[in-house]
Design goal:
Layout lengths: L4 H7 L3 H4 L2 H14 L2 E4 L7 E4 L2 H9 L4 E2 L9 H13 L13 H10 L4 H24 L3 E3 H6 L1 H11 L6 H12 L12 H24 L5 H6 L2 E2 L2 E2 L2 H32 L1 H9 L4 H12 L4 E6 L3 E3 L2 E3 L4 E5 H4 L34 H15 L3 E6 L4 E2 L8 E3 L1 E6 L2
Helix pairs in contact: 1-3, 7-9, 7-17, 9-13, 10-11, 10-13, 11-13, 13-15, 13-17, 15-17
Length: 416
């Protein structure tokens, strides 16, 4: 049964809805068609406006002076918001680039920007390709059956980003567990606990780890990104412990979880669209377009929040100062006004104006690295792939923020 507009809106504050793509996209289609800027009132959450059209998400992203990230950059329960506001007042809240507005955002972003510029990415690409080969070899070693997410996809991008940071390989499993607990806080399999206090404990564990790392890099600077963050200065002063820890957290978590979701979801799309798999295998020059189509298809970042700094009219709806807006990226990336046949997976889609990396001043810092990783993996995999098919039902993660598949059982044959 097609949901009502209000039911569709409430789906955006229902983590389980994101684990059921058919349900989610049915709800988003209703909102795009009937109420593109829709007030959502869901039990346990502070109200927010759901923005579901590509043009409107783009307008909000462009107007970063009017629509601010602080104080509610991600969707959480009302209790989560209350605790976060209390920590902001104490100066103890996490402050990643996601949480910041200019001028702080511009200054803090610049600390890591050089590590993700084209020159740095070209220098890193041979290492990424080496790791891609390693994990395709790992796929071969698994003997033709595996859970692709848990045994391959989560590990390759994790290895890349933590190597860039300069973390020891012995700590990688710990970082993976903490990331899954952070982004899987609403998923029964992934979460550490259900209370806001238990979810906060994950952040505190991250901070404890990274405080030790900061001290080590300040005492003995190295040539990795962790050292650049630890030794950065703003107006002659080092970053606070909160800002340093927050910077590490966003790089270490978003830097691999979103990419692993894209690789897993991209393979699933190819498996379920065998004509597109055959097309791509026959013409690997399509890979840059295919990578962006995988990113659009998966849209691993489901939503960011913004807060209006002044009254504003958006698609005929008056948004009041202080109102919250949710930018529904999976909806924008299926907008019929922008994408021809948006529910068709097309490895040659061009143009592809997806918003999976955001837009404007908050455009994803690691977008180029993500594209390199996805491209490298599939350029290593497809020439060796002889067959692939489902080996059970895939399952998605329950979330309202970041996620994708948490299980993808496959059967396959590889050459070499």
């Amino acid at each position: 049964m097609t949901p009502t507009v209000d039911e569709a809106g409430r789906a955006l504050a229902t983590p389980a809805a994101y684990a059921d793509e058919a349900r989610l996209h049915e709800a988003l289609a209703v909102l795009r068609r009937e109420s593109p800027v829709h007030l959502v009132e869901q039990d346990g959450y502070n109200p927010f406006w759901a923005v579901t059209r590509h043009a409107d998400v783009l307008e909000v992203e462009r107007r970063h002076d009017l629509f601010r990230n602080a104080p509610r950059p991600v969707l959480g329960t009302a209790e989560f918001d209350r605790m976060n506001n209390a920590r902001i007042a104490q100066g103890a809240a996490m402050r990643t680039l996601v949480h910041m507005d200019d001028p702080d955002h511009r200054v803090i972003r610049a600390i890591g920007a050089d590590w993700f510029r084209p020159k740095a990415m070209r220098a890193l690409e041979p290492r990424v390709r080496e790791l891609a080969r390693r994990y395709v070899d790992r796929l071969a070693d698994l003997g033709g059956r595996c859970d692709f997410v848990q045994e391959v996809a989560v590990h390759f991008p994790l290895y890349v980003i933590l190597s860039l940071l300069g973390l020891p390989e012995s700590d990688f499993d710990r970082m993976l567990r903490l990331t899954q607990e952070l982004f899987g806080g609403d998923d029964e399999e992934m979460q550490r606990g259900t209370t806001p206090e238990e979810k906060l404990a994950v952040v505190l564990d991250f901070f404890a780890y990274f405080q030790e790392l900061t001290a080590a890099r300040r005492a003995h600077p190295t040539d990795d990104l962790a050292s650049a963050i630890a030794n950065a200065r703003v107006d002659g002063e080092p970053l606070s412990d909160t800002d340093t820890g927050s910077y590490y957290v966003i790089i270490a978590t978003a830097g691999h979880d979103t990419t692993s979701s894209t690789i897993a979801g991209g393979l699933h799309a190819l498996v379920t669209h065998p004509d597109q798999l055959d097309r791509l295998r026959a013409d690997l020059s399509l890979m840059p377009l295919a990578v962006d189509e995988m990113i659009r298809w998966v849209t691993p970042v489901k939503a960011f929040m913004r807060t209006a700094a002044a009254d504003h009219e958006l698609r005929g709806v008056t948004i009041r100062r202080g109102d919250s807006l949710l930018l529904a990226y999976p909806s924008a990336n299926r907008d019929e006004d922008v994408f021809a046949d948006p529910f068709r997976f097309d490895v040659g889609r061009d143009p592809n104006k997806h918003l999976a990396f955001g837009f404007g001043v908050h455009y994803c810092l690691g977008a180029a690295l993500a594209r390199i990783e996805v491209r490298a993996f599939f350029e290593e995999l497809l020439p060796r792939l002889r067959s692939v098919e489902p080996d059970g039902e895939p399952t998605g993660i329950a979330t309202t923020f970041v996620g994708g598949l948490k299980r993808l059982p496959i059967r396959y044959t590889l050459e070499g």
